[in-house]
Amino acid sequence: MHPGATPRQPTAADVRGLVREALPHAHDLPVAPVDEGGEHSTWWVGDRYVLRIAPDEDASVRQRRELALRDALRPLLSVDVPASAASGSWAPGRAYTVDVRLPGVSAERRAVGPEGERDLARLLGVLRAAAAPPLPASAPRALGALGAAAGRALARLAADGEVPRGLAVDATAGPAPAASVVLHNDLKGEHLLVSSAGRVSGVLDWADAVVGDPAEDIAGLALSVGAAAAARVAAGAGHAAAVAERGLLLARCDTAIRLADRLYGDDDSPVPLLRAQLARAWER
Question: What is the 3 state secondary structure string of 213-256?
């Protein structure tokens, strides 16, 4: 392969060879692609492991940073994060990790209970104080432009009966961002594992972690567990009320814009999921 060339995506045969090399004790385990999308080529390895293959150099840098962050946070957290059973390069400059699967099911399929909210509050409390490995800095989003885009989206959605008429967002006087903290930065329901008792048993996919506006993680929680629960989690983590207010504002703008992009643009996210996220973020 020439330097800088983009490798082909790995086939099932490539994956089996990689599993034999990375997990010689488990070389006979079946492999199957994971249905969910994402930028990593992701494969189940038996029922114990998940293999994530970074497709390019940028994703490889982020994956290696994710492994370091998980190792740094694991001793501090009361919820589990995946551990890597093996990692390395599957092609020049392209990384992979074989993670041990965690128990629980997606928060999209099982509700987070009161104890689970406390698990999330402790998670965000740790991130507020974490001295993590170097992470990219993310500038706070400007509410004015975001609110204007959300207003246009809501008007079109209301005209088509997707949202109630009169639903509006006022971002002109929204709270200013608080001091930057470590963020998971993608707290979607699919990244939260929930036990049969409603506890948060694991938090997946830390590849988007940054240092930035703490309201972003509250916004993610509003989409996955609802606005009221997200506000309770923010308070339990010790964030000021303005952080929760800003997070809910971000979530409401984002859900309106994303649903409109899906219905009228080129977004390919599942419509039922986007509608469910909008309902959670806008609950009163």
Answer: CCHHHHHHHHHHHCHHHHHHHHHHCCCCHHHHHHHHHHHHHHHH
